């Protein structure tokens, strides 16, 4: 009977010693697990902040991009409207001047009329000389030409005959200016399109970074419960070993 008691006592002491050894080992493991859990909690919090910042940046970038696209579209539309208006006015004036030019100068005698060549005084002297030589044109033809020339001056918007050529040159300069404006508008549209593509690429990069951070966050959230369960098991072992002591 005594031998059985000694045997039981020895087994109990062996089990108790084993539990104490395991308690020391699990105590160290639990400390490391608690430290790891705290670090992962901090990392999860940091990733959540990064995610919120990425979302805010994405929304801000979208708003900026939309605003810039709208402004670019409005500017382009306004410039195209102005260019079209000027082009229409120039074409209308050009057609009117060409029609009057055909009426004034026959096709066989058409030439560029410059300033003082159509001056009233010189025309009078020419008519006087023509009458002196007996080659004066009919009065009806002269009246018709004068009427046509008056229409030409009215079409060009000037009051003096010497300004007719200047108005032609001014219209040519206006046409060239419109071409330059059109070229500048096209170049600006190209730059705005490049800027839009750049902003779109930045948004895609932000989306990719946000997705990557979200995946990491989900992985850590999945891992946390298992770590907490291991912590609970360690606490149970620790409590059991403390009772054995």
From TrEMBL:
Residues 30-57, 182-212 form a coiled coil. This is Uncharacterized protein. Residues 119-139 are annotated as: Disordered. Keywords: Coiled coil. PANTHER family: COILED-COIL DOMAIN-CONTAINING PROTEIN 151, OUTER DYNEIN ARM-DOCKING COMPLEX SUBUNIT 3. It comes from Trichogramma kaykai.
């Amino acid at each position: 009977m005594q031998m059985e008691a000694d045997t039981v006592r020895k087994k109990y002491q062996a089990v108790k010693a084993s539990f104490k050894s395991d308690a020391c080992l699990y105590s160290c493991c639990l400390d490391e697990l608690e430290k790891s859990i705290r670090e992962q909690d901090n990392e999860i919090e940091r990733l959540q902040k990064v995610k919120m910042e990425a979302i805010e940046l994405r929304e801000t970038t979208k708003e900026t991009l939309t605003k810039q696209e709208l402004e670019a579209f409005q500017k382009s539309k306004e410039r195209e409207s102005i260019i079209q208006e000027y082009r229409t006015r120039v074409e209308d004036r050009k057609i009117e001047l060409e029609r009057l030019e055909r009426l004034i100068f026959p096709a066989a005698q058409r030439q560029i009329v410059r300033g003082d060549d159509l001056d009233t005084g010189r025309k009078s002297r020419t008519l006087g000389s023509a009458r002196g030589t007996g080659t004066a044109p009919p009065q009806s033809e002269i009246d018709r030409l004068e009427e046509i020339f008056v229409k030409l001056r009215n079409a060009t918007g000037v009051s003096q005959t010497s300004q007719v050529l200047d108005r032609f040159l001014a219209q040519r300069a206006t046409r060239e200016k419109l071409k330059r404006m059109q070229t500048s508008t096209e170049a600006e549209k190209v730059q705005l399109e490049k800027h839009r593509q750049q902003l779109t690429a930045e948004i895609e990069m932000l989306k990719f970074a946000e997705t990557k951070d979200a995946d990491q966050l989900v992985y850590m959230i999945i891992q946390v419960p298992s770590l907490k369960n291991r912590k609970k098991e360690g606490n149970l072992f620790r409590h059991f070993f403390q009772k054995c002591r």
